[in-house]
């Protein structure tokens, strides 16, 4: 009986190792969909899975982060594991998106909220950061005039956009909204229902009408001052920051 148990354990260990090797290969795939499917399997693999996520993030550390790395980071961030917490603090103390800013703006809290998938709070903070970037008057009034959008720094808008992209499986961000806007020929009446801001000719009510999770339509978030009308949105989507910004695959 003991020999049978040993053989059984060995067979199980061999199968597990083979399965993990297969998941490693899938993580190197050119298909984000395949990578995300592999990540979901890895996340279910307890401590072994956490070790594989750490290995993956270290291998990808020099690359421009995508939402695949963002999903791996979020899994480690949410894990109840001292080892995972120590790993993130050591190697990614401010997250996996470089928090670059021309105006010395601190985006660490926005990164934290998005990593935790606190999307409603992250959306409110995004507006605060846009107002902060626009200057003291905008910060005091708590919204941005469309005439102020053009002066918002490219670096900061790209940082905010990258945070949303990376922590939403590529579903949310200004660049995603711009992509959809261009795909409908810059027709606002076609854009609003596509991103869930309008339905049956009725505007979505804030905040209860919006969907604050990844089940929302692509481009649903951030709201980017949506309640202030189309001119702010038009100026934001026409900003030169998106000419070189990453887009979701």
TrEMBL record:
It holds the Pfam family GUN4. SUPFAM superfamilies: ARM repeat, GUN4-like. InterPro entries: ARM-type_fold, GUN4-like, GUN4-like_sf, GUN4_N. Residues 101-240 form the GUN4-like domain. It comes from the Bacteria. Residues 13-93 form the GUN4 N-terminal ARM-like repeat domain. This is GUN4 domain-containing protein.
């Amino acid at each position: 009986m003991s020999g049978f148990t040993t053989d059984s354990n060995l067979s199980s260990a061999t199968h597990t190792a083979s399965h993990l090797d297969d998941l490693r290969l899938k993580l190197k795939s050119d298909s984000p969909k395949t990578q995300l499917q592999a990540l979901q399997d890895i996340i279910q693999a307890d401590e072994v899975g956490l070790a594989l996520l750490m290995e993956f993030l270290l291998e990808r550390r020099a690359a421009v982060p995508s939402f695949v790395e963002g999903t791996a980071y979020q899994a480690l961030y949410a894990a109840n594991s001292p080892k995972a917490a120590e790993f993130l603090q050591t190697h990614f103390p401010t997250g996996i998106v470089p928090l670059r800013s021309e105006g010395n703006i601190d985006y660490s809290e926005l990164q934290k909220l998005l990593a935790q998938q606190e999307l409603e709070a992250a959306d409110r903070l995004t507006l605060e950061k846009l107002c902060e970037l626009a200057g003291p008057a905008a910060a005091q009034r708590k919204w941005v005039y469309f005439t102020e959008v053009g002066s918002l720094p490219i670096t900061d808008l790209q940082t905010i956009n990258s945070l949303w992209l990376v922590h939403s499986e590529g579903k949310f961000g200004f660049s995603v909204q711009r992509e959809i806007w261009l795909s409908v020929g810059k027709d606002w009446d076609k854009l609003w229902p596509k991103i869930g801001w309008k339905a049956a000719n009725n505007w979505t009510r804030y905040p209860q009408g919006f969907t604050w999770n990844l089940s929302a339509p692509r481009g649903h978030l951030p709201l980017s001052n949506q309640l202030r009308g189309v001119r702010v949105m038009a100026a934001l989507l026409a900003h030169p920051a998106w000419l070189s910004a990453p887009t979701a695959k």
